[in-house]
Amino acid sequence: MKVKGNFSKEIYIIILFVLLFGILLEFSRSQFILKFQQNQSLIEKRDEILADISKENIVEPSGSNYCILYNPTDEYSEKLKGNAIKTLEYMKKKSTEVKVNETKVDFKSCDVILLTTDQLKDIGNTEEIEQYVFQGGYIFFMSVLDIDTDYQILYRKFGITSFDKSVDAKGIHLTSDVLIGEKDLFIDDDFIHNSSISVGLDDGTELLAESANGIPLLWKNEYGKGAFMNFNGTMLQEKINRGFFAGALSLLEPNFIYSIFNLKVFFIDDFPSPIAKGTNPIIYKEYKRDISAFYQEVWWPNMLKTSKKYDMKYTGAIIESYNDRVEPPFNYTEDKDSHYLISYGRELIKSGGELGFHGYNHQSLVLDKEVSSQFGYKEWRKEEDMSESIDELLTYTKSAFPGYTVTSYVPPSNVLSKEGREAMKKVWPDLTVISSLYGEDESGVAYVQEFDVAEDGIIEMPRITSGYFEREYDRWAEANTMTGVGVFSHFVHPDDVISSDRSNNMGWEKIYKSFNDYMSRVQKTYPWLRALPATEAALDMATNIHTQVSWKNGENSVEGNMDKYNGETSYILRSKRKLGRLENCTVKKIGDNVYLVTANASKFKIEFGGN
Fold it and tell me: What is the pTM of this model?
């Protein structure tokens, strides 16, 4: 009887264990199904946003008017003007373009003057400039100025005590929070280079940035009721430096508020994809595993751990095969392995991430042989073949995830032609967002984007930085984009780890430590960012882009009024004043006199107390 009793007890324990396992399995399955349901609703949301955009009446921004003075015959001035216009557009600020070779400045209509030439006379005579600022106007010199007679008359008003010859100013040292969260950032690298004037500054002048060799680059000098913002350099013509311009502009006027996207997006290109067979010497020495086992048992668990610890939502960009086929048929590939797609894809979705497309293979969708050959790729013969390859990729993914809708695309090597774009649209109506590159491309072959909704309704949402290692250029690009538009958008490749050049000949243990340190620093610098997978982020961004804000700045308050309200929106506020009563918004301090404002209604207001 005793034996029988113990046996019954064991049976009950086993049954209980099976029941608990079933409950956990069902819970996991329900969570997975919920993610699928949320994914399918994205298309409905996209269609609603596009329908809203198509019938919207263009509402001109109101508030302070920023007059951009430029010379249309000068390429340098045109570049400065273009960057100023785009920055103000993202900020939801009103701007007016003034051609200095055709029009005289109407000082009364300009609250702020942005000069994109090196000639003070393009604003007006010295007396007009002095009186405009003294009576409450603001002037931003976006370029180093020419030392002419007007300069010699006015330089003391700019906060300068002495000046000498032109010098090369290499690198940068931020002596302020001009780039949010980056005070004291020091970069001594040739990618930051300016032609500047050697100047001495008055004790009352506020130095905001200097070169690595101590040349003042950016400073503000209050004069009367207004102020001058001086940029003593030439780098604002480059797109990557827009955030530096945005930060400087936000420090020129008191109580400056502007719109941001507030997004943190992370892509894993070539994932899930076929995994190379065999071993890698460094990986095998470190983990005694072949490549496939390493990715499954080490790399992927580590990546999931980092995403959870530092608040990241991965968007994977699927590749079906690494063959170089550019002609049909595409439905048979030796290295196709749906097992990896299902196992990695399921965990990716469960973690809050998203499955997107990179391509049927890694051949960029271009017809131009000169472009494809730069990457060692084959050019496609015709648009129809590109379409057929994408159709095969759709079939492949549907076989693994029948209820899942793929909506995002990352071009292989960040290259995509007009024909390739059209080819995708013909067979992939759910294509919602394309994510390539934001920075300028010297080669001229990359698919370079703005944050925008294209005329055909596809959302353009570029990436900014890449890699497991933090480099000075990426740090600078990140800081600029964060300050300008409030976006962190990064990507890595799984095979960076087994590539000798991209891994810096390091093992995964060191690479992973570097990656963790990198993401830790990002989280520490911008803990307020909202982490979203690509399509959710893109739809949120599209809504923001097509929402206009009217501004009303009083002496003791700032008010925003949106033409439509579709959910919480984010803004950056710069103010030295104490904050008072808030209406329909929350405010969080994120830096020295820098605040994140979250509006929760179409009308919101921030009141100020004392200094």
Answer: 0.93
